[in-house]
Amino acid sequence: MKKLVFTIGILSLFNVACKTSTKGSTEGKNNDIDTLALKPSIVTDQTAYDTDDPCIWINKNDTSKSLIIGTDKDANGGLYVFDLNGKIVNKVTDLKRPNNVDVAYGIMLNGVATDFVATTERETNNLRMYSVPDMKPVDNGGLDVFADETDKAPMGIALYTRLSDHAIFAIVGRKTGPADGYLYQYKLEDDGTGNIKGTLVRKFGKYSGKKEIESIAVDNEMGYVYYSDETYGVHKYYADPEKGNQELSLFATTGFVSDHEGISIYKTSDSTGYILVSNQQKNTFMVYRREGNPNNKNAHDLIAEIPVSTIESDGSDVTNIHLNNQFPEGMFVAMSNGKVFHYYDWRNLQEMIDRNKP
């Protein structure tokens, strides 16, 4: 299938950019942003130090009360909780360089189904976990990761829920590691006291050695895990440790200025949709087919490149859930320089993608 790189005329892109207005705090925005790039609907309040990665928690009882939880990466950093208007409504502070964050639903703790977020705490070599929405610790002080390694420094984190038995796993990346077995996967469950413990179930994942692996994303329905090998490409494996450690695909190897960063997956059905990867230094997101192409489900062709106002985005997340009237078909959230996160109306991204469908 022919690769179609997204280019857009000044007039048509201007029309898309003008469909949304920026609300919330505008502090920290770069005044030199290309005025033709897609504009966010909302820019969040600023954090204290350095935003890095967000996740979206869906409130299943009232989606308009869903939350965005993002890391503030510093030796005295934390997790910040934002409402759908971009306002800070809660936070966890004094974390030692929290890097990436992800969310999972319904782990059983003391017999109660509990939603939680997990973040890597790089300077303590721990995985920290908090119940959502109250942000209470449920990790008994932290889960030690890469315990058998000298080089630890955990960075990336993705939570995988196996649909067959609802078992929940953490897939964790680090600052550096071997050419194979770079990622560690832990099964998460109640330790008997209402806290989460982790059991190492496998080491897997190829690494180019060029830079580092930070962004990790899991597709629960399809059963795959993707991770960005910075300056090299995106790797694809089975998320279920029982399906083996064979690499299924390496894609997104061209068109990047430098770093491959945040990965997020927008679902148009149980088996179709888009994989969005941050082209960090170019301030664009590269869009690939989630389902692969008709002849090879592991061949993910580039179908669009979307310019955004987000500056040097490390992390992102996306949902297809109707949140409110402002985000009726879901929201795309991306970290930006300036200590903020940007909220985008998914409809604007979809319009850009539709113009490029072959």
Provide the spatial order of strands within the biggest beta sheet: 1-24-23-22
N/C terminus separation: 9 Å
- Sequence stretches where pLDDT stays below 50 over 5 or more residues: 1-33
- Average pLDDT number: 91
Instruction: Provide the structure class.
Output: mainly beta
Number of helices: 2
What proportion strand? 35-45%
**Fraction in helix:** under 10%
> Would you report the number of β strands?
24
CATH architecture assignment = 6 Propeller
CATH topology: Neuraminidase
Order of helices and strands: HEEEEEEEEEEEEEEEEEEEEEEEEH
What is the approximate shape? Answer: globular
The fourth-level CATH homologous superfamily is TolB, C-terminal domain
Round the Cα radius of gyration to an integer and report it.
Answer: 19 Å
CATH level 1 class label: Mainly Beta
Can you summarize the main beta sheet? 4 strands, antiparallel
Plain-language structure description:
The chain has a single domain, classed as Neuraminidase (6 Propeller), CATH 2.120.10. Helix content is about 5%, strand content about 45%. The chain is built from 2 helices and 24 strands. A hairpin with a 6-residue loop joins β10 (about 155-160) and β11. It is globular. One of its GO terms (molecular function) is inositol hexakisphosphate 3-phosphatase activity. It comes from Taibaiella lutea.
